[in-house]
Amino acid sequence: MVSAYCEKMTKFIEKKLYICTLKNTKNMKNTSAIFGMRLVLCVRRTITMTIFCFAFLTMQAQVSTGLPVIRIETQNGAPIDSKVDWTNMTSFELTDPANPENNILRENLSSRDRIRGRGNSTWHTPKRPYRVRFRENVSLFGHSAAENWVLLANWFDATQGIRTAVAFELGARLGIPFTPSYHPVDLYLNGVYQGTYMLTQHRQVAPNGVTPGPGRVEIDPNDGWLVEFDFRWDEEDEDPKFRTRRFDLPLVMKNTDFPVGIYTNQDATNFIVRDWNNFADLMWYDNSDFPENGYRDLINMESIINMFIVHVLTNNHDFNHPGSNFWHKGVDGKITAGPLWDFDLSFGAWHEGMNGTLEDLYYTNPNHNMWARQEQAPNVRPLPTYWFFTRFLDDLVFHANWRESWNNNKVAIFSMIDFIDEMANKIRQSAEENYKIWRVDEQVDFDYWVNELKSYITIRINYLDAVYNEGAPTVHLITAPTVCMGDDLALPALPSVFANDAIITSQGWQMYRNNAWVSFANPVTSSDTQLRYFATNARGTSYSNVVNITINTAPPATPAAISGFVSVRTGSNQLYSVETVSNVTSYEWTLPTGWTSTGSTNGNSINVIVGTVGGDISVRAINTCGESDWTTLAVTINDNASISVVGRDEKTIIAYNNMVQINGLKEGEIVSIYNLLGTKIYSRKASQDPEYITNLIPGIYTVIIEGTNVKQKVLIVK
Predict the structure, then answer these.
(1) How many C-beta atoms lie closer than 10 Å to residue 257's C-beta?
(2) Is 108 helix (H, G, I), strand (E, B) or coil?
(3) H or E segment and range at residue 595
(4) What are the tens digits of pLDDT across the range 174-215?
(5) What is the torsional sign of CA 387, 392, 396, 402?
(6) How far apart are CA 639 and CA 415, in angstroms?
(7) Which of 122, 400, 430, 675 is the most exposed place for a label (fewest CB within 10 A)?
(8) From start to end of 553-675, where are the E strands?
(9) In what order do the strands lie in the sheet with 605-609?
(10) 186, 430 in Cβ contact below 8 A?
(11) Which CATH code for domain 474-552?
């Protein structure tokens, strides 16, 4: 992208050169030598300004963290200093170094492409969140196209958005409708680096022409709705709002045709008010028929339970006020929870420290009162505390389904611990750059806060698991089995079972057969779809997670052609792979004599160290019904290669045939290749070690590993 700054500078340079030349041309009394000297001086000044322009842009681009980059420029470099008034954008660029198919460039934008501030508490912090509105529906990161997108600033989150990512990821895995997506990015506004942000959808009713999806709620246009529980109800003046006659629920109507204002309970024309009053009446405490009064027929119970689980697991401070809590009436007419939103004050963050440091925000701060420190600790508040939410728990069916959902989703819930590491590895470099410009005096240690988050969620998951299964046995996880149709199923390893101070009276395996849970029995049939383990004591029955039974009816198909280089160098590291074959439990590989494998050998790919002789590489797929035929690739040895060992950390660059192989790369390092003309023909963040760049024509190339001292010329010879 040619920055608007550079574009303006180019026009300025052209004007200066024209005026300078014109002045000297008009002064014909100058000798040709003097004229030439002055013209040269003009050109020199012009070149200096040009170099300054591009040096400035280069300087701004030096913050390279491996994350996608969003660059926004506003008209005349105008600041974004209002949540109400829009600022015109002149350009919007998304660059994703890992997935270039996500790249998007929109230049010379109209006055209907705009940006403004957003948020409540975060708007009053130094690092502000933003809302982007395009004049037309635009797809970002492959999501359904829409006009509105949001950039979250993560000011209160020491892990720069991992809290939000955990909540959204878990919500998606639990199937909470329309859970937003999350994409950590580096943000530049008018050429200035702003730090780590989280791009997500603006949660709203899916407008006409927009496909429903993450953050875009699908409703019936005639009687559907989207509302927000908002404890800031008195301050809300942008949307219509009302309070229910029972529970006094503070509800704000979103994306509705009703005019802005306060609606009373007597306003029968507003079907949203009517729906909620009827619902709250059924939930009210003097309703003697509750819960057998038909309230369950109005709701999507699964969505409400799973939404509660996410908010309770994250110990979201705003949830119990309540605030930023969205519910909608879907196309099925059910009152449904979602989409999820706002997890700034979660996992131990406490609102009383919002004007202080990250340490001030955390529940362990000794300056907080004892009640505050106890409320946000990881081993308290296992259930909602807001009085409307707690009413659901008076329904034993709801309570039982909560426990069942928790136990059935243990794999997803416990996987969040590893997910935190995945996110930390992705954004670590960006977070470190972020803290060079924000909270500088605090000297924030990103990894310290990541470990705090992991410790918090680990304690909390185990605490909640003990509470939800209190008294009854605790049954741990099982793995999913695979069997050939008609054969006896080999059951997974027995899960750990804890009696919890009461003798276990029965335990065993159950399978879901013909739409009912029954005792396990071989052989399996096509109607046997799921498996679980149960344990019972005098206080109740608990279950493991539920896993699917994979039933194969035949050996797997023969793998397609093997991908990898057919002419290789002795001692080099190579990767060979095949496309995934369905209904496979493992793969078997064979290698030429003298070759060795590194890592796993039973997947659809294999890393090898090349021996001294060529031969065949073969692979076949295996499942419980047998093996496929072999797929074979003939490989020859070609040691006619140039080898260069460069850089302080001794990276090895090998050029041979039509490719370059680079060993010793670190995660996140960017490899760029230039031809003799200085044109960049390849640039990509290292995703593996070694890294291979193929299909190069014969010639001389320069390999540069950005962020290191590695710069090496190589010769490619066919």
Answers:
(1) 7
(2) coil
(3) none
(4) 999 999 999 999 999 999 999 999 999 998 888 766 788 898
(5) negative
(6) 45
(7) 400
(8) 567-568, 573-577, 586-590, 596-598, 605-609, 615-623, 626-627, 631-637, 642-646, 651-656, 659-663, 670-674
(9) 573-577, 605-609, 596-598
(10) yes
(11) 2.60.40.10
Q: Which two tokens stand for residue 131?
A: 């809302």
Average pLDDT over residues 78-94: 96
For residue 397, the one-letter residue type is V
Cα 117 to chain centroid, rounded: 22
Q: Which residues have CB under 8 Å from 109's CB, separation 6+?
A: 88, 89, 90, 91, 92, 135
CATH of 642-716, picked from 2.60.40.10, 3.90.245.10, 2.60.40.3080, 3.30.2290.10, is 2.60.40.3080
First to last CA, the chain: 35
Residues 367 and 197: their CA atoms lie apart, in Å, by 30
77, two tokens? 């470099």
Give the start-to-end residue ranges of the domains of the chain. Answer: 4-60, 69-153+181-205, 217-404+446-468, 474-552, 567-637, 642-716
490/484 Cα distance (integer angstroms): 10
CA distance 269 to 258: 10
**Topology of the domain covering 567-637:** Immunoglobulin-like (2.60.40)
Cα–Cα distances in angstroms (integers) from residue 164 to residues 309, 343, 368, 598, in the given order? 15, 5, 24, 37
124 alpha carbon, distance to own chain's centre:
26
The pLDDT tens digits of the residues spanning 305-354 come to 999 999 999 999 889 889 999 999 999 999 999 999 999 889 988 766 66
Q: What's the CA gap between 715 and 709, in Å, rounded?
A: 20
For residue 299, the tally of other CB atoms under 10 A from its CB is 19
Number of H helices, E strands in the chain: 11, 41
Do the domains at 474-552 and 642-716 have one common CATH topology?
Answer: yes
State how far the Cα of 437 lies from the Cα of 432, in Å rounded to an integer.
Answer: 9
The single-letter DSSP state of residue 185 is E
Q: Is the CA virtual torsion 657, 637, 607, 582 positive or negative?
A: positive
Tell me the C-alpha distance between 578 and 111, whole Å: 50
Question: Please, what's the b/e burial string for 383-405 (b: 16 or more CB within 10 A of its CB; e: otherwise)?
Answer: ebebebbebbeebeebeeebbeb
